[in-house]
Specification:
The complex is a heterodimer of chains A (768) and B (154).
Chain A lengths: L14 H5 L15 E7 L5 E7 L1 H5 L3 E6 L21 E2 L5 E7 L2 H9 L2 E6 L6 H5 L11 E2 L4 E2 L7 E5 L2 H7 L2 E9 L11 E6 L5 E5 L4 H14 L7 E5 L14 H13 L3 E4 L2 H7 L6 E9 L5 E13 L9 H10 L5 E10 L13 H19 L3 H8 L18 H12 L11 E11 L11 E7 L5 E5 L8 H13 L6 E4 L17 H28 L6 E4 L2 E4 L2 E7 H10 L6 E7 L18 E12 L6 E13 L4 H20 L5 E2 L2 E2 L4 H4 L10 E7 L20 H13 L10 H14 L4
Parallel strand pairs in A: 1-14, 12-13, 16-17, 20-21, 27-30
Antiparallel strand pairs in A: 1-5, 2-4, 2-6, 3-5, 7-8, 9-17, 10-15, 11-12, 11-14, 15-16, 18-26, 19-20, 19-25, 22-23, 23-24, 26-27, 28-29
Chain B lengths: L2 E7 L2 E7 L5 H9 L17 E4 L2 E4 L12 E3 L13 H8 L9 H14 L5 H7 L11 H11 L2
Parallel strand pairs in B: 1-5
Antiparallel strand pairs in B: 1-2, 3-4, 3-5
Helix pairs in contact in B: 2-5
Classes of the chains: A alpha+beta (768), B alpha+beta (154).
Chain lengths: 768, 154
């Protein structure tokens, strides 16, 4: 049957509100009687707090409450419950919250912060994970223990270790082996809308949190726990999301500022709003961590990969959030990008006095893929294969069960590679074009949810009114990617109504059913399947009622464009709206409603970190042509092609937006972006010095959609939110090598690094 | 000490009492209540607060409110026609997928609007220059550039 809504370039449902300035972000929301909260951060990255004097701040007119670690109930949050909202005895990073103020306006609150005196005793800081791992290094959390002997340590007690096959035996068998060290930098999400919330308690101490979280239901759980700790056990927490000004993983965990807002609201009995300044957004949200990787790769004479061995050290920073668990997702490309039977991966996350790390688009995959795809290229050269051919020999295929027990259902990896080669005008060989370089890199990511939590589910409720208008209540959140529109298209397709007639409600935990959160590229797949299930139930009820009205068996009826008709006789028909009113107004009538909870049939990892994490996997390949200025080291992108296996494009326009948006985020990661921490202090907490790319930096980019029709996806779709940035950096590094023969192994690839490498190469002998 | 200023805001004579340290953004958002203009950084780097003053795109977060005296200021709210119909740029942004999280959209559209008023048929390079001061983290600018091209009829 021809599709009418799915597969169409339908504009985003929320775009009209956004282009007219009427969309309400957290910045725009004002509640009656609302006060403004501000946070005082630490002066030192590592210090004991000797005393805090808030008396002068308390006397400032307009100040309604001042809180410190000493005046709030004991409570800690984070993956290891190591992070109090306000620090009492010790600060462990420059973003540590030491005091907070609520006042009648933001300026007064800010002024009050200046009146708070904190006396510190500075402690030696640890800013390099390798230093922090050394015997005798100062301890960041004195009570944290690890290892078999349960000794105090800065290494997180979370031993990441994946073994498949026998790497040592494979090393002996390998005809060619390469090894290398790679490093990646701290980068941050740079959402244009900064973080913020408003906490409001009713007279019974039930909390309403106006928030821009990506995880309303997990945040709800966190806040219920916090209410309990704050003496309000058994109270409700409701999360109401305003329009979200970007996410990219930054809002995948709850933050100190949210707990502080609750504590301030408790203290003043009025709603309290905290919205970050841009500087705070850089400083006090949790970024993608830097990594140090050692990788070794080997293949046989036939070019087939025999083993991959990787050791990784991750700078976790001062407290634990989801950054500490990114090795779980790194395992996906490490075990299953290309066919590689023997894999050994170990990773250590290390406490330091830097900022602490969180989720960011790709969740560890970009760091791992940078090392893998750079090293693959070195191995191809060592073994005497063209880079394209080498990838083809080892490419993943449908029906494969990878060593980590991922079941590869559909797999468009080879098609993506072929598209990239063709559209770049590249023959797939080395040094094809004088003065230019070609490079490519592939990716694998979860595409059918990811069971990283006990449930990977999403609920949907649909109700249809007397006029054929549809309300869809989904647990999933829209952070700008357009899931609201995708869900509307899926429901519109099933019920054969215009997408405009489908209204999606996705921002209120009191109204919508549960969802684990907008992460892991899961929303189209999981929330889409959930909406599909609910819509099918609605359709069934409609056909049932229409069957009664037409005296026909429902199985012989068709629903299309507002009409239900008998397949054998089109003249026997009834209007959609009439059926709805019949159901409603008949004796003992009912409203047309359905609910459906979809939890994908994927698996949590077992104790060996094996198991089918996702129902399906998304593949892709990026290719790039570059020109390198040997005088300045500047890399110019001549052409960029990003091809992605998406299963089925529910909305090609929104999909292309995900690919090009991801691609440009990847370009920044590859070439310019870096949080410049010096001794724990962030030196570039602004856009200009952080070097976020502007429109002028954008090369010609082609987003290519490869459809593989995933049988378990809604209308065949896979997830695509994250993959766009995963292979960008290695594709560029490979192209630079192809152009000038130097390989940059630490990101970002700045002109200085390229120039230094060119000079070093020249010294070694012969011109580059 | 507050000072009274009068200026044309979205085509209408407007009077306001402003403090000398207020930015135009503060006046628009917090005093007049026009929330369509966004604050993305507060120091003139991201362009989310772009408004048009006497035909030029300006970062309202670093423009003193008192300087609006006697000028013609257009915000995103001023782009709608009297009958509520959308500006061609707004339509193009919707139809070309140029909006994701949308936080940069009002400022981006205002910069594009000032560009097209000065140069009705900009080249791709000129479009990129015209919106260089407007940061977007979601779209990678590709569909934004296409939308501006479409609105210019090129």
């Amino acid at each position: 049957m021809e599709l009418t809504a799915v597969g169409k370039r339908i504009p985003k449902k929320d775009a009209p509100a956004k282009v007219t300035g009427s969309a309400v972000y957290i910045q725009d929301l004002v509640l009656p009687g609302m006060l403004y909260g501000k946070i005082l951060y630490s002066r030192y990255p590592h210090a004991r707090i000797k005393s805090i004097d808030t008396s002068r701040a308390e006397k400032l007119p307009g100040v309604r409450a001042v809180l410190t670690g000493a005046t709030i109930p004991p409570f800690k949050f984070g993956v290891y419950k190591d992070n109090p909202p306000l620090k009492k005895d010790k600060v462990c990073s420059i973003r540590d919250e030491v005091a907070a103020v609520a006042a009648t306006d933001p300026e007064t609150a800010e002024e009050a912060l200046d009146l708070i005196t904190v006396k510190y005793e500075e402690l030696p800081g640890l800013f390099d994970p390798i230093e922090a791992m050394k015997e005798g290094a100062p301890l960041i959390h004195e009570d944290h223990v690890g290892g078999k002997e349960k000794k105090p340590t800065n290494v997180l007690n979370m031993p990441w270790r994946l073994i498949t096959g026998d790497v040592e035996a494979a090393k002996k068998e390998a005809a060619f082996v390469v090894q290398g060290s790679y490093a990646t930098q701290w980068v941050t999400h740079c959402c244009l809308g900064t973080s913020g919330c408003i906490a409001e308690l009713d007279t019974s101490n039930n909390l309403t949190m106006y928030s821009n979280t990506q995880i309303p239901y997990l945040a709800q759980r966190d806040f219920i726990d916090a209410l309990g700790a704050f003496g309000m056990k058994g109270r409700r927490a409701r999360i109401v999301q305003s329009v979200i000004g970007g996410g990219f993983g930054s809002k995948l965990d709850t933050y100190a500022y949210e707990y502080i807002a609750i504590l301030l609201a408790m203290a003043v009995r009025r709603p309290v709003k905290i919205v970050f300044t841009r500087e705070e957004e850089f400083l006090a949200t949790s970024p993608r961590q830097c990594t140090i990787t050692r990788i070794s790769h080997g293949c046989g004479k036939d070019g087939r990969l025999l083993f991959r061995e990787m050791e990784m050290i991750l700078d976790n920073g001062a407290y634990t959030s989801w950054g500490a668990t990114t090795p779980s997702v790194m395992m996906l490309p490490i075990s299953s990008l290309y066919k590689v039977p023997n894999v050994k991966y170990t990773a250590k996350c290390v406490y330091t006095n830097n900022t602490y790390s969180q989720a960011m688009r790709g969740y560890g995959n970009p760091q791992a893929t940078f090392a893998i795809e750079s090293s693959i290229e070195e191995l191809a050269e060592a073994a005497g294969f063209d880079p394209y051919e080498f990838r083809l020999i080892n490419a993943n295929e449908p029906g494969e069960l990878t060593p980590q027990k991922f079941m590869i259902t559909t797999c468009g990896m080879k098609e993506c590679m072929s598209e990239v080669k063709k559209r770049l005008g590249w023959g797939g060989k080395r040094r094809e074009k004088a003065g230019r370089g070609f490079g490519m890199a592939s990716l694998v990511h979860v595409g059918g949810g990811a069971r990283v939590y006990k449930s990977d589910g999403c609920g949907t409720i649909i109700k249809v009114d007397d006029y054929g208008k549809v309300d869809v209540f989904t647990g999933s959140s829209d952070i700008g990617e357009g899931s609201e529109t995708i869900i509307a298209q899926i429901v519109a397709e099933v019920l054969s109504v215009p997408t405009d007639d489908v209204n999606v409600i996705n921002n209120d935990t009191d109204v919508c059913p549960w969802d684990v959160g907008v992460h892991a590229s899961r929303t189209t797949f999981v929330a889409g399947n959930s909406a599909l299930g609910a819509a099918m139930k609605i359709k069934e009820q409609i056909l049932e009622a229409a069957g009664q009205a037409l005296s026909e068996d429902p199985s012989g009826l068709e629903l299309s464009r507002g009409l239900i008709w008998a397949r054998h006789d089109k003249e026997k028909n009834i209007a959609f709206g009439k059926v709805l009113r019949n159901i409603h107004y008949m004796s003992g009538g009912k409203m047309l409603m359905a609910e459906y909870f979809y939890d994908p049939p994927n698996e949590n990892f077992d104790r060996e970190f094996k198991g089918n994490l996702s129902v399906t996997y998304a593949y892709g390949a990026h290719g790039v042509e570059v020109e390198v200025d040997k005088e300045t080291g500047r890399v110019k992108i001549i052409n960029y092609v990003a091809a992605h296996d998406v299963g089925k494009a529910i909305n090609p326009m929104l999909l292309e937006g995900q690919i090009s948006g991801g691609g440009v985020m990847g370009l920044g990661y590859a070439l310019s972006e870096k949080m410049d921490f010096r001794n724990g202090r962030l030196m570039n907490a602004n856009y200009l010095d952080y070097k976020l790319l502007t429109a002028k930096d954008i090369p010609p980019m082609q987003a290519v959609i490869v459809e593989t029709d995933e049988k378990d996806g809604p209308f065949g779709a896979k997830g695509i939110g994250e993959p766009g940035l995963v292979p960008t950096a290695p594709a560029i590094a490979n192209a630079i090598y192809d152009a000038v023969g130097v390989r940059i192994k630490d990101l970002p690839i700045t002109p200085e690094k390229v120039l230094a490498a060119l000079k070093a190469k020249e010294k070694e002998g012969g011109p580059a | 000490m507050k000072q009274e200023i009068s200026f044309i805001l979205n085509g209408e004579e407007t009077k306001a009492e402003v403090e000398p340290h207020w930015t135009l953004l503060h006046l628009l958002r917090e005093v007049i209540g026009l929330k369509g203009t966004k604050e993305g950084c507060g120091y003139g780097e991201c362009g989310a607060c772009t408004v048009i003053i006497d035909g030029k795109a300006v970062n309202s977060c670093i423009f003193p409110a008192v300087e609006a005296e006697g000028r013609r200021v257009t915000t995103i709210e001023g782009l709608l026609s009297k009958d509520g119909s959308l500006h061609p740029l707004q339509k193009a942004f919707i139809e070309r997928g140029a909006v994701q999280c949308g936080f940069c959209s009002p400022g981006m559209i205002m910069s594009a609007c000032a560009l097209l008023a000065e140069n009705a048929q900009p080249t791709e390079e000129e479009i990129k220059e015209g919106i260089e001061g407007n940061l977007c983290r979601c779209t990678g600018y590709v569909q934004i550039i296409e939308a501006i091209k479409a609105a210019s009829g090129r």
